TrEMBL record, chains A, B, C, D:
Transmembrane segments: none annotated. It comes from the Eukaryota. It comes from Westerdykella ornata. This is NAD(P)-binding protein. SUPFAM superfamilies: NAD(P)-binding Rossmann-fold domains. It holds the Pfam family adh_short.
């Protein structure tokens, strides 16, 4: 791999984040951000052993200092002039589906912080690297992709602690798409409308068959497709759902 | 005035908040919440002197303790069993229209806190009183109204510090409308799409004539209309703009 | 009644159309358009006998000649200079909820014609009268209101024959709002999201209680409210649903 | 080429239609539908001479008989059991950007007929072939893709003759996505938000540089990407615009 450009994935876990990291690691050195080392260590090892390059950094996206520290470590590893070809924000805070009057303030606040402040911190850290990717004439337009959910466009009863942050993140991505598209950075937002097939959801929707859940690897392919769109044909938003999903 | 039900207006200033307070004060005792006493003192005096009843309380909606303290003062004044006929959230944090990479973190955070956390804190404080209003068979369904803006549905370049909070607030209002409508509380969201005619905007859009700006008193009438809708005909969302506004 | 301005209601039947006609007849002479005389005769009689003025005209809104003929009759009755204070489009074609491949072409075509071509024909006929209302300085900005449905914003499986026309009508109303707002005509669109309580739906949703259906009279009040908004505060769109409706 | 499945493209001209046809012709025999033979003859010849297979059929999508006749010719050529892997609706009627009261009825009607009735006719003709594609276990889920425009989601002043049909078509595509997704057919809608770079638009936006217009070939790539999504990850809608486009 000779690219001097890197890909950064925030919110690496056993699902979409890992699949996206593996996919982009086929072309770029990847930086894996997650709060807990156990969320990226195995994956980094796997990528490094199979011919790719991965660097994991413990990072709390909701904390701007932690994100700035991650950028510092990226520069130590890849040089001060490092540019990014892709930055993917895949983090989500915990939330509770509960009657609103029983929703603890800290659950609401924490969830909002990960999605909204986390999105802000990550974008402020990644965009200078993505703009360097533009300067360095990356093969594909540098991409900033945000992972959304059904709750990014529909705010159901008892879902306020999740939807507020997701709507805020969608607003952020739309504003950035309008500001940074003309500067050559491709900002996208993906509405993941369904259950993703990961170990944690193994028993979910079983009676609906193997096609009832989204494939995380296929989401990664979709993100890669977004990444390869030329500057004349940028997609801001896609929705993704299993064919059998009701919507 | 014999109503035992009150109306609460958060975010009282010289514009919409004051007009809404005056309108609802014709029927209900009103509680005026603003951070600074100078934003409610004159208005409270005006209402109290003209036959209404108003109570101003210094409150920072972004701070849940401050909001809980306001509820405590409301109960001291109106009794522990006080119910609310209406609660209007009209607060907005400051924001900057600026290139995203020059946006200070604290501007983003503060603006988001007022809109999103403020909306949360206000709703958690007001809904128990509004549900008491339902129990006490208020003449009109108790109403929780959120003030939005153009930026509630469109997130323009360089407007991330305003739009993220406004989208989050809209998500909150939609979730609450779905949860509390069936309990008899009418939750609404108003998209104010244009400049409001207040002292601060006196010189704005002057060349477009006197009809280029929204009337704050007319917004208050619209909120009153929402408040008087029967339980069979709830409107969640209205947009409001001057006839000559481009959109 | 001394107003020289009239109100026109297209799509008069036993529900919303009749309620709207009665409401506006308290202020304006009303013209009632429906394909079949039995849909307006009783109502016209009722209004004429209770101190109002109503003129019924058999009209097929899907047929531009029929609509032009109605305008001719209006001018014969009210004079060539007659202006309109309000024009309400409440017509809907029949449709079938059926698997798409079993949907007869003529059902699709007829439904689309009533909503889309009907909306077009009605707007082209009414707008010159509404602009005369502006010239004649009507008390309230002349209003052109379109009745929409859940299917105006959501197109469910098997509902193509209804939704296509309703989306087209919403598009028409939005385009007209943008063009004629600056000319002083208030164009609105109402999303009626639920079952309206009319004789035909008497047995529907009975187990949910008396508040499960929209009140047609309350819809008429909402339309009247839209009509009375000042030129500084136009609402393009409202949604309306029973408090207990799931959405 | 050994596929027994075909691709059908309606609305073949010098732009998107031709690019899509060339792209899908690399894998499938393609059927080219256009009203005028000059719109498909050269393209069919080009594809047939370069190792692909193309069949052009003069078809007016607004006329259901003409569309049925095309299906008849397809079966004569490819057999009664022919299945389709893809069907792309790319037709648009002429329209006028003009003050609404000067818009001739026949312009409105014709434009609506091509988009709305045309979409209906094409979908009723293509879906049985696409369902055969499902039965015949096509490599990729059979795809029905509709081409939309900015005017599919925004209805500007003076644009009613274009937007009504485009909104109707979007409604059709959404209803079909919900009905036929569970049957294995992937229905999509693409919002083309900008000027496409074709001979007719050669002189447009020249001062903005070569990246100001959408590439038709890149649109074709995007449609191919939609086509290859697995059944667990269907996208209903994408938007596409040049990076520098204001939106």
């Amino acid at each position: 791999m000779s690219s001097k450009l890197i890909a950064i994935v925030a919110g690496v876990g056993p699902g979409t984040g890992a699949s996206v990291a593996r996919k982009f690691a086929q072309t770029y050195p990847v930086v894996l951000l997650a709060r807990k080392p156990e969320n990226y260590e195995g994956l980094a090892q796997e990528i490094n052993q199979s011919g790719g390059k991965a660097l994991g950094i413990s990072t709390d996206v909701a904390d701007s200092k932690s994100v700035k520290n991650a950028v510092q470590k990226i520069k130590e590893e890849f040089g001060n002039d490092v540019g990014a070809a892709a930055a993917i924000f895949n983090a989500s805070g915990g939330f509770l589906r509960t009657p609103f009057l029983e929703l603890p303030e800290d659950v609401f606040t924490t969830s909002l912080k990960v999605s909204a402040n986390g999105g802000f911190n990550f974008a402020q850290a990644a965009l200078p690297l993505l703009l360097k990717g533009v300067e360095q004439k990356s093969k594909y337009p540098p991409s900033l992709i945000f992972t959304g959910a059904t709750a990014s466009v529909k705010s159901n009863a008892q879902m306020a602690s999740f939807a507020t942050g997701k709507w805020a993140l969608r607003a952020l991505s739309q504003s950035l798409a309008r500001e940074f598209g003309p500067k050559g950075v491709h900002v996208s937002h993906a509405i993941i409308d369904g259950v993703i097939d990961i170990p944690r959801t193994k028993e979910w929707l079983k009676d609906l068959g193997p096609e009832a859940k989204l494939s995380a690897d296929a989401i990664a392919n979709d993100y890669w497709w977004l990444h390869t769109q030329p500057v004349t044909n940028f997609t801001w938003e896609i929705d993704l759902r299993p064919a059998i999903e009701k919507w």
